[in-house]
Amino acid sequence: MTGGSELLGHLLHDLLVKGIIVAVALVVLAVGMTIIWRGASRDRDR
């Protein structure tokens, strides 16, 4: 049964790594959109 638990460990690690990548990408996207939104609103006020 060691092979099954080893496979489960690999799958959980893979899920964790992909989850972290998605979370970081969402944070970068949110920061980028905030910067663009503030820049666009400043241009509109001029």
TL;DR of this structure?
The chain is an all-alpha fold. The protein is built from one helix and no strands. It is rod-shaped.
Features:
single chain, 46 residues, 1 helix, transmembrane helix, mainly alpha, 0% strand
Secondary structure topology:
Blueprint: H1 2-45
Transmembrane segments: 15-37
Keywords: Membrane, Transmembrane, Transmembrane helix
Describe the structure.
- It is a single chain.
- With 46 residues, the chain is an all-alpha fold.
- The chain has one domain.
- Helix content is 96%, strand content 0%.
- The protein has one helix and no strands.
- The mean pLDDT is 90.
Overall geometry comes to rod-shaped
Number of structural units classed as domains: 1
Q: Could you give a short account of the major beta sheet?
A: none
Number of helices: 1
Instruction: Give average pLDDT, whole number.
Output: 90
Compressed to H and E, one letter per element, the order equals H
